[in-house]
Amino acid sequence: xxGYGRVGQSIGRFLRSEHHDFVALDYDPERIQExxxxxxxxxxxxxxRGDLLRAVGLDRARLLVIAVDDTDVAMCVLKxxxxxxxxxxxxxxxxxxxxxxxxxxxxxxxxxxxxxxxSLMLAxxxxxxxxxxxxxxxxxxxxxxxxxxxxxxxxxxxADARETPGFNREGE
Length: 172
What we know:
The protein has 172 residues and is mainly α. The protein has eight helices and five strands. The strands form two sheets. The protein has a three-stranded parallel beta sheet with strand order 3-4-5. Strands 1-2 form a two-stranded parallel sheet. Helix 5 (100-105) links the parallel strand 4 (90-94) and strand 5. Helix 6 (114-129) packs antiparallel against helix 7 (134-146). The longest helix is centred in the last third of the chain and has 16 residues, at 114-129.
């Protein structure tokens, strides 16, 4: 796993609960120092370095999760990983789907945009609280995911910025 922030740690908890070993790399020394107190599988290093990916066993891995919070870094890691192996499935976390096509073209098996996933969760809860049967909501969410995340198509650009208090059209 590349990146051991909140997302990486959450994935790690799921993997441990299913008894799957993993190795995580992160380049935040404070995070690594904290993680080392309870984890032996988290190491300091820049996952953009192919030699480091080889050293932690990417060529023997069953899966690579790129959970970094920077799409440019994720793209670099992805490209380095694909130079090492073409067979390992690679999941990439992104904020949104703006680079979905590029990440897939570079070799990502799946790209998971945070904004869409949080939107799906909020929409699911809203519909359930409004009385829509959970089965119908789950079906709709599955349909959106199956159709490759087109829920956000047609959303206003910079909609989040416009909702921010103190923001107006002149940028003041």
